[in-house]
Predict the 3D structure of the following.
Amino acid sequence: METTYVGHATALLEIDDRLIITDPVLRDRFTMLRRHGPALEGTGREPTEVQVVLLSHMHYDHADPRSIRRLPLQATVIVPRGAGLYLRSRVPQPLIEMSPGESMTLGPLTIHATPAAHSGSRPLAGLASQAMGFIVEGRSCCAYFAGDTDIFDEMEQIGRDFDLDLALLPVAGYSPRTPPGHLNPHSAARALSLLEPRVVVPIHWGVLRPMGPVWRTLGYLQDPPYTFKGYANQLAPHVEVRVLLPGETTEIACRSRQ
């Protein structure tokens, strides 16, 4: 399995020759945010290769129709139940709605929708839908993408039920403050001790920031994954933490699933 941290909640996962993208935000700026690092083109993988899109919730920094339209027409976009009404007139790809607890099969992959402790609404559009995460289970590898979430009761059950090779866990946000409904470096390490993956890659840091030059100098853009790693070494020392800078890729040797 390979994973590339594109930035914020956008990551590329390659499992069983299927390329998956999470919460694609591929523009340099939108609403009041701008990109602070390389876009997808800087990763060496092209949007035209993507086959599966996982959309965790409908907040603007996670669900960007203009970015989804850059992806292949034949890509399957999996969205929270209720989001299809908004997205079907805005993106050309086929949509599949899921709710936490549901599973579906796409070729060699089984995709499980998991709970998330986060609001999933899109207030300016009058849209209310759930937030969720995803477990992607292939023939050889199993990965968890948390989306946006705080710690929730079922995390320990996820760790027991799935033999996770990788977790993509959010550790910060696009401003210095991490409000309720999000993981910060310490709570993400606590979540890690419940999930018990083999490898964790911290995401949701260092790429999106509010517009204005003052934000360039603040440590919150660089520090969260390393602070998280320090906590993780204390709370989940058996889990390998791999900090990827935006655009970097890592290969993960998965556990045997015989």
Remarks:
- The CA atoms of residues 118 and 181 lie 5 Å apart.
- The chain has a mean pLDDT of 89.
